[in-house]
Amino acid sequence: MAKYAESLLLHALFFTLHSTSITNPILAIDLGKYKSVACVFGANPSRATFASLTTDREHLRKRIGRTKPSVVLIEASLLAGWMHDLCEEMHAKCEVANTARSRIGS
Fold it and tell me: What is the pLDDT of residues 2-60, one digit of tens each?
């Protein structure tokens, strides 16, 4: 699993527990310079699925389009800006998590 995927998943779980507007799955993406890890889950987080994908607009656009998420959750990073813009273009809600404040084991 990618470096911060566990922390991102915790943020996604927290978001799910504190949101009443989740109807579609959550798409949490650990953005990497070349490769990213996408985690998709709905009401039952134990059924989460993970997939590796190339970090570019085309692949991420396809993933968002296929998933039709209630929210896209990404970590705060240099890549967060264009990813947030992509979500806005696709009318997908985007939340940015500060994974530095909630590392597992810290």
Answer: 455 555 665 665 555 555 556 788 899 989 999 999 989 876 667 888 999 999 999 99
CA 42 to chain centre: 12
- Judge whether 76 lies within some domain: yes
Say which residues have a Cβ less than 8 Å from residue 27's Cβ, sequence separation at least 6: 38, 39, 40, 63, 64, 67, 69, 71, 72, 73
Q: Give me the domain span that covers residue 61.
A: 5-101
Do the Cβ atoms of 34 and 52 come closer than 8 Å?
Answer: no
Other CB atoms within a 10 A radius of the CB of residue 30 amount to 26
Q: What is the CATH number of the domain that holds 48?
A: 3.30.420.10
Question: What letters, b where the CB count within 10 A reaches 16 and e where it falls short, cover 39-51?
Answer: bbbeeeeeebeee
